[in-house]
Amino acid sequence: MKTKIISTLSILLIFTSCLFMPSKKVSDIFIKAGYEEKIKNAFLVLDKIIILKDFKEDEVRKNAEYIFQLITSKHNQQISNPTHRLYAVITIKEDSFIKEFVSLNTVSIETQLVDKDTDEIILQMVLSEESPNTITSYSYLYEIMETSLKTIF
After folding, report:
1. Range of the domain at 89
2. Mean pLDDT throughout 91-114?
3. Span 42-69, mean pLDDT?
4. Distance between CA atoms of 2 and 80, rounded to whole angstroms?
5. Residue among 149, 44, 40, 49 at smallest CA distance from 87
6. Beta strand residue intervals within the chain, DSSP E
7. Is residue 2 part of a domain?
8. Which CATH number goes with the domain that contains 97?
9. 125-140 pLDDT per residue, tens
C-alpha cells in the first residue's frame, strides 16, 4: 500500500511540475536604417495573412484579419497626417509537440512591413513562444498578435 501511494505521489508530482515549466519565448526585429520614424508615422494596411496550421486555417485567418484591423485602427487613428502606407504581410505558424508528458505548441508570428513605393521590406520581425494555448483560441490569438504588433509601433 505504501509503495502504491508513493508511486501515485510521484506521478502526481511529475504532472504538476509540468504546470510550472517556464515557457520559452523569443523575439527579434530588424528595421532598415532610416525607417524608424517613417514606420511610426505610417498608416498600416494589411496586405495578407498566411496561416500555417494543420486545421481550421480559414477560421484563424479570419480572426487574425479582424484582430489586425482592430489593433492597427487604434494606431492609424493617432496618425493625423500619414506620410505614406506600409503593407503588412503576417505569417502565423503553430506546431504541436509533447514535452514531459504535456502537449505544447510552438506559436510564431512573422511580420514584414513593405513599402510599396520602393517595393522594399523595411521591417522584419518574429515573435515565437512555446505555449499550452493554441491560435484557435481567439483570446490567445489576440494576445500574441497584440504583443507582436505593439513591438512595431
Report:
1. 23-152
2. 92
3. 91
4. 72
5. 44
6. 25-31, 43-52, 85-99, 102-115, 120-131
7. no
8. 3.30.160.670
9. 999 999 999 999 999 9
